[in-house]
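ok so i was messing around last nite and threw this chain in just to see what happens. nothing serious, just curious
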Amino acid sequence: MRYMTAGESHGPEEVAIIEGIPAGLTITAEDINEQLARRQHGYGRGQRQVIETDTVTIMAGVRHQVTLGSPIALNVHNDDHNHWAKIMDPNIPATIENSTRKVMRPRPGHADLVGGMKYRHQADLRNVLERSSARETVMRVAVGAVAKKLLAALDIDVHGFVSNIGPVKSDLTQLTKYQNLAELRAVTENFATRSMTAADDQAMQAVIDQTKRNRDTVGGTVQMMATGVPAGLGSYVTADEKLDAKIARAIVGINAFKGVEFGGGFDNADKYGSQVMDEIYWSATRGFYRGANHLGGFEGGMTTGEMIVVRGVVKPIPTLYQPMQSVDIDTHEDHRASTERSDTTAVTAAAVIAEAMVAIELAKAILDKFDTDSLSRLQEQVAAYREEIKNF
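result:
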């Protein structure tokens, strides 16, 4: 499985092409739109989420709501393009009239300046920010929605939620009271901050409100969990085949993510081996299993069969309504940075995007290991593999 996205933040369309999805998977526009709506909702989002109503059009690769095995083409229209049609028009040359709203004062923490240097966009840094904008993640969530449908057909579930915003941190030990991810999802999706409790939700909303009043932005941490993943996905043989490394790359590849950890993560650095390693047990019904999950479901770059637990750190958004120090790229004079319409925090959306990326990498790993032409054959092979692993 592989995919490619294209589109600019204020361009007419966002598009994606996915290759490698087996034939026979039922997928509808509503399945994808449900995930797109989750990305748009969340406390702290900005005015663009009011302008846009993200809905997908399935352009190819699906007939009568069932995948054909051929490349799948997805399209999401940018409603906000109506206000930018002349400025972003790809079919007419630049003029004084259609070259307004230039960006000449790069924002600290954004791709503006370095991207301008790299691609020689010295005349207008909008050429950088239009693609580097997190608007592109709408298509990663769309691709992730397809990946989640595939995983669900194999009894694999993935969910992401918010574990902290600014100084407010959830007590993750409370996760043990949930029997499955469906129970957790029913709770976290009910809160505007996608947090675990009503108290966390209220405290996080208060932080976001105060941050907005300060004309500032705030970051946080999101946690992704996956159940039903069979042991042995990934490989220890070469570094680039380690599945935890692929997931780490996918998470840090999301806009504004600056760190990733698995299981106990960085806290494991303060402990001893006897406190961190997941002891091995065996039963006739389960086969081999671990007594704990400090390593987040991975050993040697491979899945262990335990729940996958991944956390990603999201930095505050670099667009501040009280702009920071910058320099005009034309005059080289000191100026305050440019201001674009933005969110106070995108952590609530980041949980959905990171969930999509984990689903994509898990789907890739499954499709790398088994026959990918037909869903029914894939299901048969995965079931046989699970039985083989249980009887090892």
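not much to say yet. The radius of gyration is 22 Å.
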